[in-house]
Design brief:
Largest sheet of chain A: 7 strands, mixed
Shape of chain B: elongated
Strand content of chain B: under 5%
Structural class of chain B: mainly alpha
Number of domains of chain A: 5
Number of helices of chain A: 26
Strand order of the largest sheet of chain A: 15-27-26-25-16-23-24
Oligomer: heterodimer
Number of strands of chain B: 0
Strand content of chain A: 15-25%
Radius of gyration of chain B: 18 Å
Helix content of chain A: 40-55%
Helix content of chain B: 55-70%
Order of helices and strands of chain B: HH
Largest interface: A-B, 26 and 23 residues
Shape of chain A: elongated
Distance between the termini of chain B: 55 Å
Number of strands of chain A: 27
Number of domains of chain B: 1
Structural class of chain A: alpha+beta
Largest sheet of chain B: none
Amino acid sequence: MSMIFAAAQDTRDAAIASQVHRSPADPEGESLLDDPQEWASFGRPSAPAGATADLWESHVVVEGMHCAACALTIEDALRSVPGVERAEVSAATQRARVVWQPGQVLPSQWLAAVRKAGYRALPAMDAMARDQRVREHRKALWRWLVAGFCMMQVMMYAWPAYVAEPGDLSAEMEQLLRWASWVITLPVVFFACGPFFGSALRDIRQRRVSMDLPVALGMAITFVVSTAGTFEPDGVFGQEVYYDSLTMFVFFLLTGRWLELRLRDRTAGALEAVMNRLPASVERRMPDGAFERVAVRRLGPGDVVRVLPGEAFPADGRLVEGRTLVDEALLTGESTPVVRNVGEVATAGSYNLQSAVLMQVQGVGADTRFGQIVALMESASLQKPRLAQLADKVARPFLLLVLLAAGLAAVWWWPTDPGRALMVAVSVLIVTCPCALSLATPVAMLSAAGTLARHGVLVRNLQGLEALASVDTVVFDKTGTLTRDGMAVRSVRNHTDLDPDEALSLAASLARHSLHPVSRALAAAANDPQRAQPQQWQVEELQEHSGLGLTALVRDAEGRLPARRLLLGSARHAGAPGEQGGGVGQWVFLSWQPEGGAPQELARFELTEDLRPEAPRVVAALRRAGVDVQLLSGDRSPAAARLAAQAGIEHWRGDCSPQDKLDVLHGLQSQGHRVVMVGDGLNDGPVLAGAHVSFAFGRSVPLAQSRSDFVVLGDDLSLVAQSIALARKTLRVVRQNLWWAAGYNALSVPLAIAGYMPAWLAGLGMALSSLLVVLNAARLSFGLQALAETGLQGTADLPLTQAAPRAV
Amino acid sequence: MDILYLLIPLSVVLVLLVLLGLWWAVYRGQFENVEQEGERILRDG
């Protein structure tokens, strides 16, 4: 579960960082790492024995490596930097470990060496978490090796007793072999079995029963019986010893555990990799009035920072100088820029569009609205899905039953052969796999959640996965979900005999210098490769008037024709007669103002919100999967109708107030439909909460108000259809797991009680059983089904993208 | 077969020594990154 919280935090940090510092190749970003306070975030002091000076060990992620030889090149480059003591680069994990001396060299210098070699290195912020996992891995590997090697040796000592005819093996020799086996088994019992005993002791202390308890009990009994048999060969247990069984089933169990560990880390590692980037930075005013670039994490209330156009505000604050347009889409869903004057508040995460401003910081990090929003999301408790709760309820009495059955079996066999009786009891204890029962649901859900997280869908509520699998209706909100943020040029209408493409390129030559969404749309349209190549114009004296438009002097590229003053903007700004009626979009006018004369319209552009290109495909895929698609929009009906037609949605409704949407939702639900609501979380709060399952598109969502089960961080609508497909698959896997767990136990426990199951076979069975459950769940972590395949039964899964670097 | 009275205890000692060797290998990172070390030999110079 923690990896999902971590993912939430990382995406928050990544969102701010990617917006604040927009030039990744900027060495200034790297120089921030020379600050000793930053070192601890991606390294730690290194103190090898015999070192005379302070050393520091840092971990970085290297980008651009495509082969093992690259790793060696980078190693050489790093080692050639004076002050770097050791450098190890791994091509498999794409990471480097650098041991360096702070007195002689600084991180930016050896990072520069990597850059000169042609690669890019970023501080590995997740290094500490990875480190922890490496240590866990090593311990697990070591335990497994101990168990494995000792198992092989004990087997060799046990072999003579198996094959000996009566009289072949002398009593002393047999005794010697038993002693040798006992000594070799000691490391296994006292070290390799550590996790099982530790867990069992915890359970006893807390008066709880978990799946490690029967296993630990079985191990303990086996060892005690065999030891007694070794010390007292003539005693009641002296007939046979079971060291080979013991070491074997310990080995099998540890194998299962180790593979589970590897699988778990594969998902966790991919998520943690999101954290690796240069620290976000901003210009802060120093007491003498100059500005220095500092890391965002160093800001405190009262600092005055300069936020340049194109940067995001790193903190909440009040403007003290300058005025600008800000884009608060990330927080409010409104992509229309808002004017901010001196004295007004700017929020962290909003985007400075127009001019550089000075801001006095009021709240940073967790105190910002953005921070609080994310904190709320992180603190949303993940309820255990219903199926998992059911499994837990069954597991406990089941385990008690198992203990009882073992006891009864022992009692039954005791008169015949006390040694055998105990071993039968041990077999019963070991062979049952309640772990399959309690693992079945969580491991599948977590695998699915991990896969979704890697593709940019955060699961706030695992119960949502279960609910998502059974939906039969999808309701889309129009703005921000079916349509892209920003606008697109829909048509160009020229007033004079100016060629439309030329008009567009004229307009774009002005628009290129502005960050207003309308300008960006015009510039993007002019760059469209399908249009004729834009002519180059020289633009001088560009002025942007907030809320109105742009003016500039435009000259032909060769400078031959005299400069013309162009006006681009709203009707009022361009002096054009009123908006043409009809149409569904917003009109932008381009006109020419001759000296001393009235502006003359050259052309006008119609801009509309843009349907996401994947929307029709997604709707088709949902239909194929048997899910009905509907559109509810607060926008005017003509606009909604046009979009519905484009997307291929039959049922749509425009002019919906939030109450209307809620009514439609209740109507559907009362008809027995299970509805998933896809919105941007803005005015859909109650509706999102009321639906069975809800998706929020994260780019324009106020996360605090969003009570959705899934948050889509990216822009891709196909994730909705793919998530539904994955949820269905998850539930199938969970059912398969539960059936397997039930069937396996029903078969193996009677066999064990009847004495047909030797202890080693019991161990093998248990390990294989839980391994099967985990591997079945691992099928869910291969990736999302391609959109074209969604809805088709029995299609093989295609890994769509590997969003994160593969970590070994 | 009296020699076995020597050899079997000796083998136990050897096993313990091997376990020690495995411990050294695991905690010195010998089991990480196995493929790259093999390719190191192909490097020039």
